[in-house]
Design goal:
It is a single chain. It contains seven helices and four strands, in the order αααβαβαβαβα. Helix 3 crosses helix 4. The chain is about 45% helix and about 10% strand. The chain is globular. It has one domain: P-loop containing nucleotide triphosphate hydrolases (Rossmann fold, 3-Layer(aba) Sandwich).
Length: about 170
Amino acid sequence: MKFTELTLPEPVRRGIEAAGFTTCTPIQEKTLPIALGGKDVAGQAQTGTGKTAAYLIVLFTRLLARPRKEPRRGSPRALIVAPTRELAVQIERDAELLGQFCGLKMVVVYGGVDYAKQREAVQGDLDILVGTPGRLIDYFRQGAYDLKSVEALVIDEADRMFDMGFI
């Protein structure tokens, strides 16, 4: 299936084109129609098969369909939890490429970098919050952000999160 066969907002379609994607991978072909239809999806596939792109496309489409009327500081509309800093950084890279025309604000948090600077970013205006469990829990307990506006939750590598004791 080609991405052009999917009903996607123009900013998402442009991001897909900028990424050089034309044809869905098998995991994308199976999950995108279901998830774009508003249903929850759990998927499992090898690394590099397009799982991250699949959930980002759905997430961007969903958030663009219902724009926030006014900014709400420290209240993300989507939360993406990743087990490692490396994966959080990769999600950020993919989201910047695919979402470059969407105008959505994303904040990424993980250990090993400036704690106060990340905390300040989490307290600002944001649409998508991506992070590792430890850092997300720390900031949540401090009241740096709330979950009142969350419309979508992505748990990336959920099997690994179980193994690490986070779920």
